[in-house]
Amino acid sequence: MARKPVLEGGKRDEIIAAASRLFFTEGYENTSVRKILNSVGGEVGMFYHYFESKEELFDIVADRFFRQYEESFRKMASGIRTPEEFAERFLELYDTAMKQYGRIEHSMHWTIRSAFHERTVQALVPTAAELLKQFGASGKYPMDITAAKATADLSAAIHSKSFAAMNPEEQKAVLVSLINDNLK
After folding, report:
1. What is the pTM of this model?
2. Cβ pair 132, 182 in contact under 8 A
3. pLDDT confidence of residue 5
């Protein structure tokens, strides 16, 4: 018999919120379905009424996290016409994101940090592809590959010690240079 679709809200959202806290602080492997249910006062049958597996629940937690992140990146990129303008706006968004991340990073399990970093890069690729098209990218690779490379380049730069030590104008110059390298 097929499962009925479950609407948003109520106990389902409590489970998602509890799972989010536990996944972030204890990691995926150390968060059991039982631990999640204990934190919301639920039974195993209730969990499987809402979710097929812990993996599905983790995907929902990650999707909710990244939906907000992707939207803020899309808004930031809206109306940008030049790599220089992108670098300025991106640095503002990056500063805001790092302040938010800094509040939770110390309690975030390393496995989650790693998975979310990779997913962050992937989440930005569609918007990066649109921007690169606007900037006139005509590389030898399909646009999704070019955008993935550009996004990975930017990620590597902004997460380096050298970048952190630069002043904002130097950071902007690095970002513009990396973007221009991906336009060829």
Report:
1. 0.68
2. yes
3. 47
- Quick one: 33 exposed, middle or buried, by C-beta within 10 A (0-12, 13-18, 19+)? middle
What burial letters (b/e) apply to 82-119, b meaning 16+ CB within 10 Å?
Answer: ebeebbbbbeebbeeeeeeeeeeeeebbeebeebbeee
Q: How many other CB atoms sit within 10 Å of the CB of residue 177?
A: 13
User: C-alpha 101: how far from its chain's center?
Assistant: 11
Short-list 157, 91, 156, 151, CA closest to 122: 151
CB 123 within 8 A of CB 70: yes
The confidence score (pLDDT) of residue 27 equals 82
> In terms of Cα–Cα distance, which of 147, 172, 176, 173 is closest to 94?
172
Q: What does the block give as tokens for 171? A: 């950071």
78: left (phi over 0), alpha (psi -120 to 50) or beta: beta
